[in-house]
């Protein structure tokens, strides 16, 4: 109940509106960051796998099928 009263008071107060705008902006930045990190992690994983395969092939340490 106290939380609801606080939110209503902030909604009517100019400082509260500014705080809500900043909170929404922060949420948007967080979602964009999470999306970017998820996308980048996939790309980095592919690059590391290719590098690992190249090193394994170059050193002959991979399992052979002979």
Descriptive account of the structure:
With about 70 residues, this protein is mostly helical. It has a domain at about 20-50. The chain has two helices and no strands. α1 crosses α2 (about 15-60). The protein is rod-shaped. The model has no long low-confidence stretch (mean pLDDT about 85).
- Report the average pLDDT across residues: 83
Quantity of strands, as a count: 0
Main sheet overview: none
User: How many angstroms does the end-to-end distance come to?
Assistant: 73 Å
Class per helix and strand makeup: mainly alpha
Would you identify the regions where 5 or more consecutive residues have pLDDT less than 50? Answer: none
Tell me the fraction of residues in β-strands, as a range: under 5%
Helix content: over 70%
Oligomeric status: single chain
What Rg do the Cα atoms give? Answer: 25 Å
**Would you list the SSEs in sequence order as H and E?**
HH
Morphology call: rod-shaped
Helical run tally:
2
Which tags fit this structure?
66 residues, mainly alpha, 2 helices, 86% helix, 0% strand, rod-shaped
List the helices and strands and how they pair.
Blueprint: H1 2-12, H2 14-59
Helix pairs in contact: 1-2
In short:
The chain is mainly alpha-helical and 66 residues long. It has helices at residues 2-12, 14-59.
